[in-house]
Each structure stands twice: as C-alpha cells, then as structure tokens.
Amino acid sequence: MGYSAQIYHEKKISIIVPVFNEAGHIALFYKELTDVWKNLHDKYDLELIFVNDGSTDDTDTEIKKFTQSDARVKYLEFSRNFGKEIAVSAGLKYASGDAAVIIDGDLQHPVELMPQFIALWEKGAEVVVGVIKSSKNKNLLRKHGSRIFYTLLRLVGDSNFVPHGTDYRLLDRKVINAFNNCTERNRITRGLIDWLGFKRELIYFDAKERRYGKPTYSLSKLSKLFMNSFVSLSFFPLKLAGYLGLLITLIACLFGTFILTEQYILRDPLQLHFSGSVQLAVINMFLVGIVLICLGLIALYIANMHTEILNRPFFIIRNKENFD
Q1: Quick one: 292 and 188 in the same domain?
Q2: Structurally, how many domains does the chain consist of?
Q3: CA 206 to CA 272: how far, in whole Å?
Q4: Can you give the pTM of this predicted structure?
Q5: Looking at residue 1, what is its pLDDT?
Q6: Ramachandran angles phi, psi of 96, nearest 5°
Q7: Looking at the domain assignment, is residue 289 inside a domain?
Q8: 56/137 same-domain check
Q9: DSSP 3-state assignment of 268?
Q10: Helix (H) / strand (E) containing 305
Q11: Which of 61, 32, 56 is nearest to 48 (CA)?
Q12: 1 falls within a domain
C-alpha cells in the first residue's frame, strides 16, 4: 500500500536508520517498522530517514523502492563510507520531527518497543535510552570487551555514560538542536548525547540475533571507537600522562638514592655490584618508554585538533530523495 499523502497531526516523529550493506533484511525491517507504526499513525506523523553510509550491495535499490511507494520515507546517500556516527549525525541534521528515534536497521533493536519510547517522551523524558539487558552475541571478546569498555568510560569519562546503552534512543527536539550545535568530528553519538544531559529515562531490552549477514563493526572499528571515546569524552589520558611522569620521576629519584647510598656511601654491603652502565641503561630505557607512552597519548589529541582545524564537511551527500 502506498502512502502518497498523509493526514497531518500536531506532532511528528522522525525515525533515523543508518544502514551499511543491509540489503538482505532492510525490506523486513521496513515491514516490521510500518506494522508497529499502524498503532501510532493516528497520533503522530512519521518521517522515516534512511542514511546509506556508502553501501556496496543493493541497499540503495531496496530503499528506493520504499521512497517511490511511501512519501513518509526519506533517503540520504553518502558519497562513500563515513562511519555510523556520522550517518546518525546526518539523520539528526535533516530530521524535522518534534522527536527523533535512532534505530539500527539490522533487526537487533526491537522495533516493537518504539511505542514505549514515545510514551516516556510524552511523560516528559527528553532522552530515552535503550539499554541491553542481555545479548545473543556469542563472541566472547566483543561481549567482555564491551563490559570493560563501559566500566572504564564510567571511571574516566567526563559525562554520565549509560552502561550498555545503545544507539537505540529517542531525542526530544531540544536535544536534537543541542546535538546539531556540537562541532567535533571524531564523535561518539551515544557519548555526546549523554554529555548533553537533559532528563533521561531508560528502557531495558534483550538484544536480538542478527538475522542476516555478519555485524559490520569489525574488531578494528570497535578499537577505533574505544580510542575515540576516551579522547573525545575525557581528558583523563592527558592527566594520566602527567601522573605517570610524576610517578616515574619519583621512582627514579628513589632508585637513584638507593644506588647512591648502597653503592657509594655504604660501600655495597649487599654485594649487588651495579655497574654504572647498567644503572644508566635501565633508567634510560624505563624513562624513554614512559616518554613514548605520553607522547602517544598527546598525539591522539593533536590528531583530533588537526582534524578539527581542517574544517572539512562531516559528510558528502551523493543523493537525496523525498526531501523538500
């Protein structure tokens, strides 16, 4: 059934779906979403925004079928792969709704919970976060790595990070506007939203298994996400470098005092026979290693500053459909 026209209501909900090589199940996702929306279309206008993050399969063809038959569906196609965080940011920039729901298109986020997100928003919540209660993910490295990731972020981050919070979120219009005013490029969407604050509610759910294909987030991409999170959400690494430098200086002083006392003042009563070259080699290797670690941490921040100074656009759009 086509939706070439619709009745306009007082409130509009924008649904943002970042996609990358999702041709195998995007039609099923669209069907499940529109089935759920049948219970909501009497109250809200729907704006469904698909953001194609440089897919190399038939995702583009599949989405264009929706835009041709359903005027509520809007489509942004990137010129290349810019990453999921930027795809979500593009969707929020183009969203015109009173609230926006961010949801993955791989069917792991339960679309049937969307009415609950909207209900909490109607009760006054400005951010509604979907939190994973349990996961069907059988990859132990990803599962335990995720737990460590959230624990460390809560310890060192400058924002109230939601443990096991997902990108499945509802944002009020005022939150969307605040998010769109943020200018950093190496961004972590969920971390940035948590940093913004606002009144927040949580919805817990069991993550579903991915029905088709493999997750597009590889270990290398997750590692990059991990490092970007620390650099963009906390100054702790820079502070840690200073603390390490202070600690190593103290240890070097204590070690030097011990050698001076044991070798030269007390005339080596322990018979350790430290040679001068050994003493210098150990101390130099230790200090050089710490200096390199500190330089590496500082380099991450300098790299971020370089990216910001270049002032390139966040994304480049090849094609737009059904936007006014």
Answers
A1: no
A2: 2
A3: 61
A4: 0.70
A5: 47
A6: -115, 5
A7: yes
A8: yes
A9: coil
A10: helix 276-310
A11: 32
A12: no
Co-location of 305 and 317 in the same domain: no
Q: Which residues pair with 127 in a beta bridge?
A: 171, 200
Sheet holding 11-19, edge to edge: 200-207, 127-135, 165-172, 99-102, 11-19, 44-52, 73-78, 317-321
pLDDT tens digits along 35-91: 998 888 788 999 999 999 889 889 989 999 999 998 899 999 999 988 888 999 999
Instruction: With respect to residue 202, please indicate whether it lies within any of the assigned structural domains.
Output: yes
SS3 per-residue string spanning 34-69: HHHHCCCCCCEEEEEEEEECCCCCCHHHHHHHHHHH
Q: Which of 211, 219, 170, 162 is nearest to 191 (CA)?
A: 162
SS3 assignment, position 269: coil
Contacts of 247 (CB under 8 A, 6+ apart): none
- What amino acid is encoded at 110 in this protein? P
Identify whether residues 95 and 146 lie together within a single domain.
yes
In this structure, are 58 and 160 located in the same domain?
A: yes
Q: Could you list the residue range(s) of the whole structural domain that residue 294 is in?
A: 236-310
The angle subtended at Cα 143 by Cα 240 and Cα 207, nearest 5°, is 125
Cα 37 versus chain centre, distance: 27
Residue 198 placed within a domain: yes
Same domain, 218 and 247: no
Residues 89 and 78 in one domain: yes
CB atoms within 10 A of CB 171: 27
Q: How many other β-carbons are positioned within 10 Å of the β-carbon of residue 324?
A: 4
- Please report which confidence band the pLDDT of residue 156 belongs to, taking 50, 70 and 90 as the band edges: low
String of b and e for 93-112 (b: at least 16 CB within 10 Å)?
ebbebbbbbbbbbbbbbbbe
Q: 107 with 88, same domain?
A: yes
- Read off the pLDDT of residues 200-218 as tens digits, 9 standing for 90 and up: 999 998 877 665 555 555 5
Contacts of residue 225, defined as CB under 8 A and 6 or more positions apart, other chains included, come to 188, 217
- Residue 120: phi and psi, rounded to 5, are -65, -35
